[in-house]
From TrEMBL:
The keyword Cell division does not apply. SUPFAM superfamilies: 6-phosphogluconate dehydrogenase C-terminal domain-like. It is an enzyme of class 1 (oxidoreductase). The keyword Amino-acid biosynthesis applies. This is pyrroline-5-carboxylate reductase. Pathway: Amino-acid biosynthesis; L-proline biosynthesis; L-proline from L-glutamate 5-semialdehyde: step 1/1. It comes from Anas platyrhynchos. It comes from the Eukaryota. Its EC number is 1.5.1.2. It catalyses: L-proline + NAD(+) = (S)-1-pyrroline-5-carboxylate + NADH + 2 H(+); L-proline + NADP(+) = (S)-1-pyrroline-5-carboxylate + NADPH + 2 H(+). GO terms for molecular function: pyrroline-5-carboxylate reductase activity. Belongs to the pyrroline-5-carboxylate reductase family. The lineage of its organism: Eukaryota, Metazoa, Chordata, Craniata, Vertebrata. Residues 59-163 form the Pyrroline-5-carboxylate reductase dimerisation domain.
Length: 198
């Protein structure tokens, strides 16, 4: 909406990615705006696929994506930190505890993506009857582990919508519009275009 204030037919693609793009293991989704065409979406997908997974979704799903994969790395880092604390509590050196926890999460994610099995089935495969893992999972469940994760995704999604609402209420200053127009001119300048740079 705000972009249309200085450009009547803006080619806008809304995109949500996450920090693991730094190591080319990101998760990115995008939604094309009214004036963006298929080629624009394909170009973005090609760019973002070079740093991880990328797919197109309907725009009304992007807030949920923010709550899941956008904020997801923070959930994983928090879980990993807690796992390492558990290892340290039981006598492991911190460095080893962090490495083992990270490798467990990495390996589990890779198993899921390569096998395409339901995560519940893969979880069951680890749990032997009466074993240590099922006892640990029972402890997690009694503490509301699943509900906490579900609620975290929901909280992030809701906050994203709140922030968008606040942004929609802000007025665009003439200076901001002028700066954006100047940036657009620079981008469209032949001397600064990607084509001439290559």
């Amino acid at each position: 909406k705000k972009l249309s204030a200085f450009c009547p037919t803006p080619k806008v693609i809304r995109c949500m990615t996450n920090t693991p793009v730094i190591v080319r293991e990101g998760a990115t989704v995008y939604a094309t705006g009214t004036h963006a065409d298929v080629e624009d979406g394909k170009l973005l997908e090609q760019l973002m696929a070079s740093v991880g997974f990328c797919t197109e979704v309907e725009e009304d799903l992007i807030d949920a994506v923010t709550g899941l994969s956008g904020s997801g790395p923070a959930y994983a880092f928090t879980a990993l930190d807690a796992l390492a604390d558990g290892g340290v509590k039981m006598g492991l050196p911190r460095r080893l505890a962090v490495r083992l926890g990270a490798q467990a999460l990495l390996g589990a994610a890779k198993m899921l993506l390569e096998s395409e099995q339901h995560p519940g089935q893969l979880k069951d495969n680890v749990c032997s009857p009466g074993g240590a893992t099922i006892h640990a999972l029972h402890f997690l469940e009694s503490g509301g582990f699943r509900s906490l994760l579900i609620n975290a995704v929901e909280a992030s999604c809701i906050r994203t919508r709140e922030l968008q609402h606040l942004a929609d209420q802000e007025k665009i200053s003439p200076a901001a519009i002028k700066k954006t127009l100047l940036d657009k001119v620079k981008l469209e300048s032949p001397s600064l275009s990607l084509a001439s740079a290559s």
